[in-house]
Task: inverse folding
């Protein structure tokens, strides 16, 4: 199948996060927020975004895991004993530039220069009071603007996920109307034929390859018509 | 074994020199072309089967006079051969067109449009590479809609007749491909009727997206 639409839409894209915080309750709170986000029925990325979170409470453990594992996001508390989170991020970032770094703090306002240093060093600043969905959105935007490959992929995927949610009802309604008008309607795809009810069934199944292809083609078709 | 064809000469302008292969299976979407045949500028229409093998030379001889070939058929998923569906002894069968048979066209047909799945891979395969110098086809599965809904019939009809005209007017594969792209894009003008937007528009638009992006031409 030749299509310009990225194939990521039905692949589980993974936000692989390592979170460093000396406060155990903050680690638990972060995980709890992520769990709530995963289970939220209004979560647009629900079926398409996997989130893995590992947590550590000291710098040495964080460094070891970052060097060994394939994390694409490192979330770090700022106020920790012995060293500031931002300084640690800047230290790690020299050797691991492809990771998205997030300075996660509840006291950003106390250090007026912190936000500025984050901006200057391509580090995302995020307050602990913010919602997890907002953090995910910021991560996706950060990925997009940074031009880092894994992030671009996620942005493309989430755009399509939103598109899928928007148009699947339109396709199903359209096929219901078609079936009523012409029960013999068939879409022939590479020698296989699909009735309107079969199309509805496939579109309703998020794991269906046919449904995915239909959606991608529809997206491409709309783009072509809009370009005219 | 060489497939058996019957063939006829539709009452069309023979100066156009277009040869067309289509099916005699009513379950195949290409069968729809029969209803359009009279309106298309064709000089030879081939379908299967029930003719004896002796017709082969006559068919080939006629086709060699054609400057263009349109093939509305199927591409084998193994991307090695073309085939079409036909009724033999009241049963629908896939009739494969032997690759050897196409070799008779070497140096004859100057332009070819293969409306088949995986046409580009088959034409570029070891067996057929170089037989047709100038062709346009598809790199993936082709999507087709069969329906009695007026707008769909109109879109199909316009598509097939526009393709026949395009292959006459365009001299290079790139120009023919561009003409086909334009035909697909113009589908929008047929999407509406007096009552507004037609039904089946999602299927038509997805067909546009698929077929447009799969179009490939020879260098």
Result:
């Amino acid at each position: 199948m030749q299509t310009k639409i990225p194939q990521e839409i039905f692949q589980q894209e993974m936000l692989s996060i390592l979170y460093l915080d000396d406060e155990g309750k903050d680690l638990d709170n972060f995980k709890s927020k992520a769990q709530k986000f995963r289970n939220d029925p209004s979560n647009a990325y629900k079926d398409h975004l996997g989130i893995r979170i590992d947590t550590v409470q000291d710098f040495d453990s964080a460094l070891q895991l970052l060097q060994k594992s394939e994390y694409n996001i490192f979330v770090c508390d700022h106020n920790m004993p012995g060293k500031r989170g931002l300084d640690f991020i800047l230290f790690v970032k020299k050797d691991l530039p492809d990771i998205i770094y997030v300075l996660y703090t509840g006291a950003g306002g106390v250090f007026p220069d912190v936000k500025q240093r984050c901006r200057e060093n391509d580090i995302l600043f995020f307050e602990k009071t913010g919602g997890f969905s907002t953090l995910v959105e910021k991560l996706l935007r950060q990925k997009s603007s940074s031009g880092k490959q894994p992030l671009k992929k996620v942005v493309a995927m989430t755009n399509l996920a939103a598109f899928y949610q928007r148009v699947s009802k339109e396709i199903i309604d359209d096929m219901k109307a078609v079936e009523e008008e012409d029960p013999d309607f068939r879409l022939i795809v590479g020698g296989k034929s699909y009735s309107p009810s079969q199309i509805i069934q496939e579109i309703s199944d998020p794991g269906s390859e046919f449904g995915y292809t239909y959606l991608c083609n529809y997206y491409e078709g709309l783009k072509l018509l809009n370009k005219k | 074994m060489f497939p058996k064809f019957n063939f006829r000469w539709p009452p069309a302008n023979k100066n156009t020199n277009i040869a067309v292969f289509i099916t005699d299976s009513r379950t195949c979407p290409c069968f729809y072309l029969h209803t359009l045949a009279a309106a298309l500028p064709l000089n030879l229409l081939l379908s299967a089967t029930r003719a004896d093998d002796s017709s082969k030379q006559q068919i080939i001889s006629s086709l060699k006079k054609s400057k263009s070939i349109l093939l509305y058929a199927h591409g084998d998923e193994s991307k090695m051969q073309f085939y079409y569906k036909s009724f033999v002894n009241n049963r629908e069968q896939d009739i494969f067109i032997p690759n050897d048979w196409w070799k008779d066209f070497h140096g004859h047909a100057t332009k070819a449009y293969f409306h088949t799945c995986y046409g580009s891979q088959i034409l570029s395969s070891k067996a057929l590479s170089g037989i047709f110098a100038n062709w346009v086809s598809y790199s993936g599965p082709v999507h087709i809609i069969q329906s009695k809904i007026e707008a769909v019939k109109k879109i199909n009809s316009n598509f097939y007749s526009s393709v026949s005209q395009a292959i006459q007017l365009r001299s290079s594969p790139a120009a023919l491909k561009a003409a086909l792209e334009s035909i697909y894009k113009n589908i929008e003008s047929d999407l509406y009727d007096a009552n507004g937007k037609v039904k089946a528009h999602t299927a038509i638009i997805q067909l546009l997206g698929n077929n447009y992006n799969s179009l490939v031409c020879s260098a």
